[in-house]
Design brief:
By secondary structure, the protein is α/β, with parallel strands linked by helices. It has 15 helices and 19 strands. The protein is globular. It holds the Pfam family Aldedh.
């Protein structure tokens, strides 16, 4: 991703606080020869790490979780200063990483033990063996959580990890690396501060066996092409424009509250945040009024203030792009219920916004809005709701609000998405697989499915 507020200059990346617009850090980028050396070191470390008993790996990951708990306030502050997440949500992100460590430490033996399989061969079984060095290309919006949900199961499976993090959160990236390096053997986790144009060379390196990317559709296409050229596995978690369907028999008050919460999480910068609100016309006006009441009363301000509910967007270019999408949508007929402006003053803030009567040819209908903007799309009935829900190139999350369990199950069965939640909003949790279909990517993170993405599922018999 490009970042006009976090730019490379003479081999360095400068990080900018999105609230104060002031520089908060300058970080050196690795030269080409240093990149090769880091990857070779990760490969050497893998030869030993794969031989380390699983119980010992578990004990070391527990130490990582302890480091997180002991340094939660400082780590959360890093998140807030670098990308603008409200501090309470930043602390919750660290807590979620701790819970992830705990989940995989408790379940690693079950997930990785050999599984007997009945066949016409004797003693047939499947074993799960590590692949080697796995590259993670990670985003800025959940700078700890998305690294940890990739790294923890990958390391426990016996692989080593190198992470190319987003350039606007290199402070977080260094803090993550320090956390792992204080707990685990040297070079089992490596922070790789490189410019994005060097990622193809990293993927091509013989030591790298697979790639996991969380990011934009454009970045996903590029990484998938590069990985495919070198015949290396890739897992992609890309964007989303999640449909939230509200039927006329739903608890409209609850639906509006849950939808507003999802839309504003992380200042509206979440791939699985609610984006398109597809509402039966009989209750559309009631829903949009309640939604606007919840969304537009969110307290905007300093993200380090515990009472702040809506902080700035992470970068100026993201702010400008979001506003252009809103203006283009209104020029094509969408109506602004509330918000729709860039506030005067410091910080990359955007007003919490509700659009209604969103047209099919508008950005709010077809594109991902990465910020606190909700698009309400009235429909005649539940059949049209299903049609509109699937009328997108994305397929990450979805939700339906209805009092009829049969209608809910029917929607869940037919919506084109990696997840569907009934009468609540989508969220990722360690116990459940996470990922999308269509242009939202492929492969799964989290749960037992996630730990099996970067292993050799080896058949042994005889």
């Amino acid at each position: 991703m490009q970042a006009n507020t976090h730019h490379a200059l003479h081999g360095q990346v400068v990080s900018v606080n999105p609230f104060t617009e002031q520089e908060v850090g300058s970080y050196a980028l690795l030269a080409k020869n240093s990149i090769d050396r880091k990857l070779d070191q990760a490969d050497v470390a893998f030869k030993q790490w794969r031989k380390t008993a699983l119980d010992e790996r578990i004990a070391l990951i527990k130490r990582v979780a302890t480091q997180l708990a002991e340094n939660k306030q400082g780590l959360a502050t890093f998140i807030t200063i670098e990308m603008g997440k409200p501090i309470n949500q930043a602390k919750a992100e660290i807590d979620k990483c701790i819970a992830l460590c705990d989940y995989y430490c408790k379940n690693a033996h079950q997930f990785l033990r050999a599984k007997p399989i009945s066949s016409n061969l004797k003693n047939s079984r499947v074993e799960f063996q590590p692949l080697g060095v796995i590259l993670g290309v990670m985003p800025w919006n959940f700078p700890f959580w998305q690294v940890f949900r990739f790294a923890i199961p990958t390391l426990l499976a016996g692989n080593t990890v190198v992470v190319k993090h987003a350039s606007n959160v290199f402070g977080c990236a260094e803090a993550i690396a320090k956390t792992f390096n204080q707990a685990c053997p040297e070079n089992t986790y490596i922070h790789l501060p490189v410019s994005s144009d060097l990622i193809p060379e990293v993927i091509a390196h013989n030591a790298v066996r697979a790639v996991s990317l969380t990011g934009s559709e454009k970045a996903g296409r590029e990484v998938a092409q590069q990985a495919g050229h070198h015949l290396k596995k890739v897992v992609l978690e890309l964007g989303g424009s999640d449909p939230y369907v509200v039927l006329k028999d739903a608890d409209i008050s609850k639906a509006a509250e849950r939808c507003a919460t999802s839309r504003l999480i992380n200042n509206g910068q979440s791939c699985i945040g609610a984006k398109r609100f597809i509402v039966e016309s009989a209750v559309a006006r009631q829903f949009e009024e309640l939604l606007a009441e919840h969304i537009c009363k969110a307290k905007m301000g300093d993200p380090l203030n515990k009472s702040t509910e809506l902080g700035p967007l992470a970068r100026q270019d993201l702010l400008e792009n979001l506003h252009c999408q809103v203006l283009e949508s209104t020029s094509r007929g969408a109506e602004i219920v509330c918000g729709g402006e860039i506030p005067v003053g410091k910080g990359f803030f955007y007003e919490a916004t509700v659009l209604t009567n969103v047209a099919k040819d508008s950005p709010a209908y077809n594109e991902e809005l990465f910020g606190p903007v909700a698009a309400v799309i009235p429909v005649l009935d539940e059949d049209e709701a299903m049609q509109v829900a699937n009328e997108t190139s994305f397929g990450l999350g979805s939700a339906i609000f209805t009092a009829d369990s049969n209608k809910a199950e029917q929607f869940a069965a037919n919506v084109e998405a990696g997840a569907c939640v009934i009468n609540d909003f989508v969220r990722s949790t360690p116990e459940l697989p996470f990922g999308g279909i269509k242009n939202s990517g492929f492969g799964r993170e989290l749960s037992e499915f996630g730990i099996h993405e970067f292993v050799n599922i080896k058949t042994i018999a005889g």
